Amino acid sequence: METSVITLLVLAFIAANLPFATQRLAGIKKLANKHFGWHLLELVALYLLLGLLARVLEGRISPVHVQNWQFYVTTFSLFVVFAFPGFVARYFWSTRSH
Asked: What is the structure's pLDDT at 79?
């Protein structure tokens, strides 16, 4: 695998787990109770940012290949699978003080 692909996969794993790592919204504003809706919104936003980064990287190598909706559903599903460790740590292994 090319180095940029491996780097992108590592970034995807980190980005997918970031929403569950902190009580801060986008890492900036502290929320008293960050409920699942905020986590989901951050997850979608990070997926879109990472997709934009992947598109830029692909454009640097070759012309960007046009994708259909199936591609986006599949990549978002993989992103959600990457988020599983953070989700488990947040909702199943955390103390009740959150």
From this structure: 95
